[in-house]
Design brief:
Chain lengths: 230, 79
């Protein structure tokens, strides 16, 4: 699997995700700077990492979504190349129109940095095939703008097409208001595009992908991508 | 020509920042504050002198970048 990690001024999880990708695929990813307009043709997966791209000026991810490299990523995504957006990367993908909805400031207006439990809503994708549907996993969040908003019609479409990937839950898998850290609609923590080849999520799988980090619940995501795309 | 753009959250979209400001005003003793909504105000100095052309360009700017129309409305004025 040949991967590319997009690097914006202000990205800060690009190296972490590069390590996780290399561990699972055996191949170091290309690191693509935001000004890049020549993107290699043989990239199997683009990853838009966490951070605060361009300082998150105007809205989280808004400026990054219109950067030169993102025009290329959008074009490839339209051709079917998978794209994974983590945290700020999720915000960039929504602003770029690759995923529905928008990430607003957390309901409590605080930056949240802690582990959360997630219910795997669907294992039926390139990204989640090594999880079980309804499995409960633990991943860290670290964000100020993770409050996922969609209007009623879009929420219904997401549900009807099973585009919801992960929802915030408690340790037993119950999706409750108390387990919702940031006010996201329907406790949504991650969504697929209609074709299930683009995934955005606020929690950080790359931060729990090695036992040394305190857990490996994020590792299956990179393992199954490596398997599917190699 | 100067464009003045007000960007506000749509009705029905919760505004935690506006709510926090409202609570702060109440705790400072300002009574009778029903609701606070917080938005953005942007000024753009344009080389264009034709009002209709400028209107079209600024509208595209808003739709493309300045506002996220999933959650925000915008109003453009010229000076």
């Amino acid at each position: 699997m040949k991967t590319a990690v997009i690097v914006f001024p202000g990205s800060n999880c690009d190296r972490d995700v590069a390590v996780a990708l290399e561990r699972s695929s055996g191949q170091a990813p290309d690191m693509l700077w935001h000004r890049e307009t020549e993107v290699p043709r043989d990239i199997d997966l683009f990853v838009v990492p966490g951070g605060f791209a361009y300082g998150d000026y105007l809205r989280a991810g808004a400026v990054a979504a219109h950067s030169p490299v993102m025009r290329e990523v959008k074009a490839r995504a339209d051709e079917g190349t998978p794209v994974l957006g983590i945290c700020n990367g999720f915000q960039v993908l929504t602003e770029a129109g690759l995923l529905p909805g928008v990430l607003m400031p957390n309901m409590g207006l605080r930056f949240l940095c802690r582990d959360v439990y997630l219910l795997v809503e669907s294992h039926d994708s390139l990204f989640t095939d090594r999880y079980d549907t309804d499995q409960v996993i633990r991943l860290p969040i670290a964000h100020h703008d993770g409050n996922y908003f969609v209007d009623d019609d879009t929420l219904k479409r997401l549900q009807d097409h099973e585009q919801i990937a992960f929802r915030y839950c408690d340790a037993d898998g119950a999706v409750t208001a108390a387990a919702n850290p940031n006010g996201s609609r329907d406790n949504i923590a991650g969504v697929f595009n209609r074709e299930r080849r683009v995934l955005g999520l606020m929690p950080h799988p790359e931060r729990l992908a090695d036992p040394l980090l305190g857990g490996i619940d994020g590792k299956p995501m990179f393992d199954c991508l490596a398997e599917a795309l190699s | 020509m100067k464009a003045k753009i007000h960007i506000m959250l749509k009705n029905g979209v919760l505004d935690p920042q506006g709510k926090a400001v409202g609570h702060a005003l109440a705790s400072l003793g300002f009574d009778g504050v029903n609701e606070v909504r917080q938005g953005k105000y942007i000024e753009i100095d344009l080389a264009e002198t034709d009002r209709a052309k400028a209107g079209g360009v600024v509208d595209r700017m808003c739709k493309t970048l300045l506002a996220n129309t999933v959650i925000e409305n915008y109003v453009i004025e010229f000076e």
